[in-house]
């Protein structure tokens, strides 16, 4: 109690603290009801339904003038009107005693469930103007108010009482109206308005709507429908299927969700990530499924009835209905799809005839799945699919292999059998793939090194990046990668002598007569985390015709020292610098060692000899046995015409 007294003493005076409302408060509070004419007018009609009216008259001035919606419902007394319009998040169900609509006295009626829950529908007229008037009649009272959007921010709107007077107790109903300035507001077409209202409410003989004295035909579900029900959490979901005229109204195709006899959102064929059928399919243009969602709690509906909130209950409901619709569409389309498949089988008769029954069944099942997922797929696409599948099935069932073996000489079959006894297919494939890559690399090196105009940057240096195994067996199981950071250290050392190369390969250093690549291999600590380099490789490629001398060996040593100075490489990390060229001066032929740094000069022809040796001279053997010249698929990447990196003197 003492704590409450202290809080009361610390209360901020009213003149120092005030609540206020932002300009867009109503937009956030009522959503599309105050921004979209389609939602606004439907909400106003729904209010008439909730008021227990049997006749609703709408005056819709397309060219400007008075827009009004009047009903013969129960109406409101002065106190009810001022109370409801002064309270936000008005709980209609609690305040008015339940979900059943109340009707005027002496008006015959059946049971009617209300749409409203929280009172946002009363703001709908703000979609058309910043002010509107409301007249209502109930229990011998007539009340007339004007509602105007407030510009002060102290409240969303002002309610001004224009008139309040006694009337005959037999009068009842409400009219809400505003003036439309055609220069500022363009109303939707009257015909479209009538269609819109008719599509949103199910036909009820006790509820009639008129637009400019034209009767609105509500959605009639009493005929031309087939009824289904599916199990859901121990209850039943009622679903209706309607076949309409093709292309008559695309807004009436798909799955329509109805709640309490009112449409939720617009019909569609699923969400953006769950498309049941392409809306362009002929049958999709004629079909409408109506799913009754009354089984779920009304709190799952958005305030403006534009859709459902994504809750577990809604997702389960949608999945159950989507599964039913998919199965129903599959049954409806079965005969059409089967005719297409038979046509495709006939077109591929020769390829399919030799397949075993199991393979044929696999193709049938696959095509059925494709047609189910892609209902619009055409015959031509299916024919191509079957052609590919037939080839795959042949290969998978061994027919292609059997045809090759049938053409073998008996000695070749014995050799193949011996290979398969000593090797698994996967092992043989891995070894042959690696060997093929190395042979291609060696062949490419050979061609480039014979060309004095070879572009070391674009051609040689990338090949060495994947061909360090040429230098020795210690590079076989170690993963070396091109290191841009270390290359930058050397580039900074060379300063102005390095050529611009940022857009091509920034991990290489380009000089006027050479190119430099730096490759590193990481070492790891006890926690298997990288903590240093286990080895650094520097590869400098000299232009063909430039001899390697002691000065250039010293330059390579300078690169290694600079890497140490940068502190990016520890003192104990081995650094090996290969200086490669077409010629070496006699006094520069020996390897130079300084601590853990080795400078190794080498001629290109020696490198090629090592490469051939390490691939067991297989290129020559292949050429001799097959009587062919070895060509590489790498030519597709590098091209047969080599560019020029160095300007010729």
Automatic annotation (TrEMBL):
Superkingdom to which the source organism belongs: Bacteria
Protein's name according to its UniProt entry: ATP-binding protein
Native source organism of the sequence: Pelobium manganitolerans
């Amino acid at each position: 109690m003492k704590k409450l007294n202290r809080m009361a003493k610390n209360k901020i005076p009213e003149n120092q603290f005030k609540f206020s409302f932002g300009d867009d408060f109503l937009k956030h509070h009522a959503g599309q009801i105050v921004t979209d004419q389609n939602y606004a007018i439907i909400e106003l009609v729904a209010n008439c339904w909730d008021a227990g009216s049997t006749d609703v008259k709408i005056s819709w001035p397309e060219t400007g003038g008075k827009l009004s919606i009047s009903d013969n419902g129960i109406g409101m007394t002065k106190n009810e009107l001022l109370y409801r319009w002064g309270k936000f998040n008005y709980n209609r169900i609690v305040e008015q005693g339940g979900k059943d609509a109340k009707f005027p006295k002496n008006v015959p009626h059946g049971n009617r469930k209300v749409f409203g829950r929280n009172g946002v529908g009363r703001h709908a007229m703000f979609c058309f103007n910043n002010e509107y008037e409301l007249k209502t009649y109930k229990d011998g009272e007539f009340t007339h108010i004007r509602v105007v959007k407030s510009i002060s921010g102290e409240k969303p709107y002002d309610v001004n009482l224009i008139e309040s007077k006694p009337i005959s107790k037999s009068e009842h109903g409400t009219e809400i109206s505003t003036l439309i300035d055609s220069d500022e507001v363009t109303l939707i077409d009257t015909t479209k308005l009538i269609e819109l209202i008719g599509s949103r409410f199910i036909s009820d003989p006790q509820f009639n709507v008129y637009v400019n004295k034209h009767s609105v035909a509500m959605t009639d579900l009493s005929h031309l429908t087939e009824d289904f029900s599916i199990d859901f959490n121990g209850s039943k979901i009622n679903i209706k299927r309607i076949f309409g005229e093709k292309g008559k109204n695309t807004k009436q195709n798909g799955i329509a969700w109805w709640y309490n006899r009112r449409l939720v959102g617009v019909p569609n064929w699923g969400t953006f990530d769950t498309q049941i059928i392409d809306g362009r399919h002929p049958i999709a243009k004629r079909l409408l499924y109506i799913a009754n969602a009354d089984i779920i709690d009304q709190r799952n509906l958005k305030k403006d009835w534009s859709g459902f909130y994504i809750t577990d209950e809604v997702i389960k409901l949608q999945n159950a209905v989507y599964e039913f619709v998919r199965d129903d569409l599959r049954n409806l389309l079965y005969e059409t799809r089967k005719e297409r498949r038979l046509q495709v089988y006939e077109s591929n008769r020769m390829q399919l005839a030799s397949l075993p029954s199991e393979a044929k069944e696999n193709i049938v099942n696959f095509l059925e799945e494709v047609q189910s997922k892609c209902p619009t797929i055409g015959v031509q696409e299916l024919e191509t699919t079957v052609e590919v599948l037939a080839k795959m099935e042949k290969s998978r069932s061994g027919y292609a292999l059997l045809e090759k073996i049938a053409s073998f000489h008996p000695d070749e079959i014995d050799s193949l059998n011996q290979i398969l006894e000593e090797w698994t297919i996967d092992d043989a494939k891995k070894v042959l793939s690696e060997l093929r890559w190395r042979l291609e690399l060696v062949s490419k090196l050979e061609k480039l090194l014979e060309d004095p105009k070879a572009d070391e940057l674009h051609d040689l240096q990338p090949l060495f990046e994947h061909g360090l195994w040429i230098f020795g067996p210690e590079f076989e199981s170690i993963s070396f990668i091109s290191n841009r950071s270390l290359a930058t250290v050397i580039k900074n050392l060379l300063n102005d002598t390095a050529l611009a190369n940022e857009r091509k390969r920034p991990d290489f250093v380009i000089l006027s007569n050479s190119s430099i690549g730096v490759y590193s291999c990481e070492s790891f600590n006890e926690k298997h985390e990288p903590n240093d380099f286990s080895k650094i490789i520097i590869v400098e490629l000299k232009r063909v015709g430039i001899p390697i001398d002691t000065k250039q060996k010293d330059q390579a040593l300078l690169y290694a020292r600079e890497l140490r100075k940068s502190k990016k490489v520890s003192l104990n990390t081995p650094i090996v610098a290969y200086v490669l060229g077409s010629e070496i001066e006699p006094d520069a032929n020996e390897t130079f060692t300084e601590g853990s740094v080795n400078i190794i000069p080498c001629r290109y022809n020696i490198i090629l000899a090592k490469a051939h040796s390490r691939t067991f001279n297989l290129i020559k053997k292949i050429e001799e046995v097959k009587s062919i010249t070895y060509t590489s698929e790498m030519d597709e990447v590098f091209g047969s015409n080599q560019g020029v990196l160095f300007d010729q003197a």
